[in-house]
Amino acid sequence: MKKKVTNNGGVTAIYVRRSVADRDNNSLSIESQKEDCIKYVGEDCVYRLYCDNGFSGKDTEHRPAFQQMMSDAREGLISRIVVKKYDRFSRNLRDYLNVSEELDKLGVTVYSLSEPFNTETKEGRMMRNNLLNFAEFERETIAGRVADAYNTRSRETGFFQGRMMSFGYTTQRMIVNGKKGSVLVPSEQAEALKLAYQMYAEPSTSLRDILTYFKEHEDEIRYLRTDEYGGKNGSHSGKLNAGSLSAILKNPLYVRADKDVYAFFQSRGYEIIDEVEAYDGVHGVFMHDNADGGKYVKVGYHEGLVSSELWLRVQDKKSTNKRFQTNRKALNSWLVGLLKCKECGLSVIIDMQKKSPTNIHRYLADSGWLTINKCVARKYSIRIDDIEESVYAAMCERLQQIEIAHKQKEAPDMEVESIKGDILKLDTEIRSLMDRMAEADDVVFAYIQQRIKELHSKKSELERKLQTKSRKRKAINSKPLTEPLAMWDTLTVQEKHDVAAEMIEVVYISHLSEDIEIKFGI
């Protein structure tokens, strides 16, 4: 016979909880739990109901009703708590024990309808803890099965797998390849998303510029309001800010993925589920997390919203910006974050020593020497002033080359011609080997086949490099750089740094000579 709760003063708290995973269990419905608990305490009992509908039992921290109940317990407003099962209270044993210890100190007892043993004895507490251990194991098992099922569906189909809806799309139920599921289709927000991509692709446009523009024009751009969207990966959650807009701009969900996008994923080391033929220039791509912390990509059934050329230009710009985001603040020189040692390849520190109020000395230090003692020397003989002068001259010359090349409609990039030459050499060798295959015996045939495979791999890598170089050349816009370089002496150190970071990937200096080597990014 179940032991009734006696009301010795104070209010009885009835706590009910139902997670999404319990939706098929009618006995754990909110109404069923309420009815059973009220019947248990008696209709004449003074009680207060606390309800968490749709919340997991993995912890107590994120359940609003539970937190309110604990707050009331601390204020002395309740004297006992009644639940249908202990796992409604918590499925996490550690979490439960922490809360139980606090409730014991507050003089609040927890009663369970389904497990009516006396928790005031050590035997009763042991039975309760065993049940909670099993509940925690069950929760982790269910979570693992859900994750496995999600991963399997994500790899096998191009359907939208749920979770948060991504900005620019809504869903429709469709049958594809004999299976029914949710397919993303463009929503009324799609045009605003395309505009965001087009704006960011401009060299001089920042995330903040886009946010400001949308805020100022939100009556016209009514589907991208700054107070409505912007969760993780552009989902409808939270407020649109620089972080959420950045996530939208790097999400391959929106690209009409073609062979160039396939090559981009290869270069990033992502696991690619589909063959290259699936990258047809029409469909977008889902990106998922692997269990090992990596990424895998799967072509979806939905159509992308932006061209591969535009999407890849945006990725190039974001990649360039990322290289310098930790070194944005330039104090001692506008070359901060750009200098590296030619001998060890590590960063060169630009520091400043104030010998007197009018005598400030700038000097270079090798981080390879200072941190791991793996370079030839600590300091350099070349002066920072001389480096700045040489780099500025090279930037002006580079800009002039670009402008001339634009007029001639050809890029001043000898590396492109070199790559093309290497590809032609590989083609010649492959053709020669294929001619020899007809007369080769089995051993030689296998050797030639392996060699051709290696050459094709090298050729594919060179073709990807060529595509990347070609995209960068198309994206170059020298106009935003012309004016700053012309008025260089009037710019602040930070402004000079920002211009240099747009043009330069790295400047190598050497301990062994005063020569410098500049690698331009444009």
Automatic annotation (TrEMBL):
Keywords for this protein: Coiled coil
Signal peptide, first to last residue = none
Which Gene3D superfamilies does its entry note? Answer: Putative Large Serine Recombinase, Chain B, Domain 2, Resolvase, N-terminal catalytic domain
Name residues in a coiled coil: 445-479
Highest taxon above the source species: Bacteria
- Domain (Recombinase) spans 166-324
**One annotated GO molecular function:** DNA strand exchange activity
Protein's UniProt keywords contain Methyltransferase: no
The cross-references to SMART domains, in alphabetical order and at most eight, read:
Resolvase
Which residue intervals define the domain Resolvase/invertase-type recombinase catalytic in the entry? 11-157
What is this protein identified as? Recombinase
Give the source species: Ruminococcus flavefaciens
* Species lineage: Bacteria, Bacillati, Bacillota, Clostridia, Eubacteriales
